[in-house]
Amino acid sequence: MPSFPNYKRSKPQAEREHKHKEPRYHTVAWRKLRLSILQDAPLCVHCEQVGTITLAQMVDHIEPVRLGGNFWDVDNLQPLCNSCHAVKSGKESKV
After folding, report:
1. N or C, fewer C-beta in 10 Å, the chain?
2. Which three-class secondary structure state does DSSP give residue 79?
3. Distance between CA atoms of residues 20 and 34, nearest Å
4. Please, are residues 44 and 80 in contact by the beta-carbon 8 Å criterion?
5. Which residues contact 82 (CB under 8 A, 6 or more apart)?
6. How far apart are CA 9 and CA 67, in angstroms?
7. Side-chain-side CA neighbours of residue 32 (13 Å)
8. d(CA 50, CA 48)
9. Over the stretch 47-88, which tens digit does the pLDDT of each residue have?
């Protein structure tokens, strides 16, 4: 009987996606704050500015933490959809 090589199965897409290196994103405190922001403002603020209604999936730091933004400051957080967050993050990575 033929034997098949032992291939390691790849993880599902969701598990392969970027795991954030910042440990604060993995805390209960962050999850509660994130949920609170999304419950208070469930729509993407960038989409709203152009007249589009899109549910937010991300909570974004307006001023990136790596550039001096306060991680826990509610005034430094905004709800964004995945698309707007990707565009914003792409622009910030060039800074």
Report:
1. N
2. strand
3. 15
4. yes
5. 57, 58
6. 38
7. 4
8. 5
9. 999 999 999 999 999 999 999 999 999 999 999 999 999 999
Helix (H, G, I), strand (E, B) or coil at 23: helix
Q: Which two tokens stand for residue 88?
A: 């914003």
Phi then psi for 61, rounded to 5 degrees? -85, 120
The closest alpha carbon to 79, from 38, 20, 50, belongs to: 38
Q: Which residues contact 10 (CB under 8 A, 6 or more apart)?
A: 16
Confidence of residue 21 (pLDDT cuts 50, 70, 90): confident
Strand spans (E) along the chain: 58-61, 77-80
Q: Which residues contact 31 (CB under 8 A, 6 or more apart)?
A: none
Tokens representing 68 are 């001096």
Task: Single out the residue of 80, 32, 75 nearest to residue 56, CA to CA.
Answer: 80
Domain boundaries, given as residue ranges, for the chain: 43-95
